[in-house]
Structures are given as C-alpha cells and as structure tokens.
Amino acid sequence: MTVLAGAPSTVFAAPVERAATEPPELRGLRRDGVRLLVGTPDGITHTTFARLDRHLRAGDVLVVNTSATIPGQLDGARSGEPVVVHVANRLADGTRVVELRTAPDAGAPVLDGVAGEVVELAMGGRVELLAAYPHPGSAPGGHGNRLWRGCVHVAGRVGSYLARHGRPISYGHLPRRYPIERYQTIFAVTPGSAEMPSAGRPFSAELLTRLVAAGIVIAPITLHTGVSSQEAYEAPQEEWFEVSPQTAAQVNAARTAGGRVIAVGTTATRALESAARPDGTVEPRSGWTDLVIAPDRLPRTVRGLITGWHDPQASHLLLVEAVAGAELTQRAYDDALAEGYLWHEFGDSCLLLPEILTVERAKSAT
Q1: Domain count, the chain
Q2: Considering the domain boundaries, does residue 1 fall inside one?
C-alpha cells in the first residue's frame, strides 16, 4: 500500500460505541436534524445542521460534490467459500478497482488474493484479479494486497449488473442493509462514487433554499470516491474529478470579493485543490488526482470545511488538520467525544472555520 508521509496530530480513541448504525430518518430525525459542531477561533458551538445558514454569510461559497453513489457491493465466492466483493472506480482502460472483504458484513480485508484469480458472482458473473492496485505493496503482517485492478465479466453493462445485484458498500458497523436511496445526497447527479460523499447528506431542500436566499453560493464539482476502508496511514487512492468553468469562475469571484470558500467534504476539498493554482485561483480542470492535502501541502483555496467525523490515523483527518489547523481540529474532536456525537456516514457533522492563514502558512500553501 502507499503510505502517508506523516500522521495526523489529533489524538483520540476511536469511539466504536458512537457509530451511527442507521440513517437519521430511522432515528426520528430529518436529514438536516443531525447535530452540528461549529468550530472557530472564538470557540465551539453545538447546534443542528438545519441551522447551518446562521453560521455563514452572504458571499460565502459552498463547494458541493454532485457524484452519486453506485451499489458497488456484491456477494461472491472463492473456491465455493463466500466473500464480499467491492467494485469501485472505473479506470481509464475499463478495468475496475476491486477489493475483497470477509463475508457476510465486509468487516475485514481479504489479503491472500493472487493475480489471475477468478471470483464467482451471481448469474454467471465473475471478477478476475489482474494486478495489485495501484502497485504491489505490503499489507499488515508483511504480505498480501488489499486493492486490485480487476476485470468484471458480466452480461451487459457493469452498471446495469450492479443495479440489479449490488447494494451500497458498507462495513461491520451497520447491523443491516439499507437501500441505495439512503446513500444519495441532495446534490447527487452523476453516478460514480463507490461510497457516498457523506458530508453532503444532511442538506435538505429547505435548508438549501434558505442558504441561497441568504446569498450563499452553491458551486458544484464532481469527484468519484473510491473505497474508504484504508488501513492506518494509507494514502487515498487516485480519484476522477471535474471542476467546471462555471464553478471556477464562481470561486474566483467570491475570493476576490472577500467571500469564504467552504468545501462540503474532503472530496470537494480534494477536487477543488486539484484545480487550484499556486496563488489560490481555480482553473477548469478534470482528470485523475492523486493529490494528498496535508499539513505539508496546505490548501490554497479552501478556507473552511463541512465534514463528518473521521477515525484516528486516517488520511481524511490529515486533510481536516490542513484546512482547520491542528489546534482547532483537536478541540473539535475533544468536544465531539465529550458531547457524544455520532460517527460514520449516517452520523453527525461539523463546520470548521479557522482563522485567516498566517504569513507562514500562506507561504507553505504556495
């Protein structure tokens, strides 16, 4: 696996008992009824996501991801034994990123796959493991590979097959399965994400209307997410993104007028920063990005972040620290743990609005 150059400085114990095990709607809440922690240099505020508009101002830009979640989890068999197959990003040559996980709940990676192996799927489908992805690496224990470049052999289009036989990718923290509709955000337009860009999930139509009426700009990007089950300190894999000319113009105009560019999620951050010039202006761009936002590569454009809560040692947490700063991130996580916030894709949210970059941080960003 590809390993991060550094580790997050935020220290906390993963709150396993605070995992959100069902969508908020099944807990008696609206989508925008989840809790929201707002962190600024002035302190921490606890509120609900429905009141997000009270913490933004006219001229701010919210950058949102329009990628829709695909049902990329399948049941398979290896030599007659059950296995869970995750079918993720479509690569340029038509192959797919594939991950094998333990049955029945995908609770752990399967690391003993070999090139040339064929995994059987429903209705005569099969997945052939071609080569370790992105390259052969050392898995925990010193052997094996977690991700593969694979060829999915099915009758008809792979997307149609997944729609018939697949389900949303999930892991052991969920006690049961939920339909794909529960994994779509209000912004979802273009199918392609292996897992939900979950920072956008709490937005409702009513909240979006209030934001627009208050003069807050909604700027769309697209980034198709890969599987999020990285091992500790594992770098994020390459992902396909697009920043349109319209979004680039909206972001640049807002920056010129003094508005804050706030990314809705780590995916929106990665996409926008992949299109950012050294001076922080954004140009239209699309393609594959391997950019890792971290304290040694600070954001050039993004000045605030809406996100969920990430596990310790995760690459996503490095990105949060790069945007918000290590001190504000630590304070936010300390308060979230003390106040019982819920983790994972159906959990609670935070809005981090750090102070203006110091001269030293601004120089590092360029």
Answers
A1: 2
A2: no
**What residue ranges of the chain have pLDDT lower than 50?**
1, 138-142, 357-366
Nearest to 154 by CA among 143, 163, 146: 163
β-pairing verdict for 73-78 and 61-65: unpaired
> How many residues comprise the chain?
366
pLDDT in the model for residue 297: 87
Q: How far, in Å, CA of 320 to CA of 306, rounded?
A: 10
Query: Max Cα separation, the chain?
Result: 62
Whole-model pTM: value is: 0.91
Domain membership of residue 329 (yes or no) is yes
Across-strand partners of 129?
A: 150
Burial bucket for residue 267 (CB in 10 Å: 0-12, 13-18, 19+): buried
Q: What is the DSSP string of 200-256?
A: GTT--HHHHHHHHHTT-EEEEEEEE-----PPTTBPPPPEEEEE-HHHHHHHHHHHH
Q: Name the residue range of residue 223's domain.
A: 16-69+178-365
d(C-alpha 70, C-alpha 162), whole Å: 8
Do 340 and 192 have their domain in common?
yes
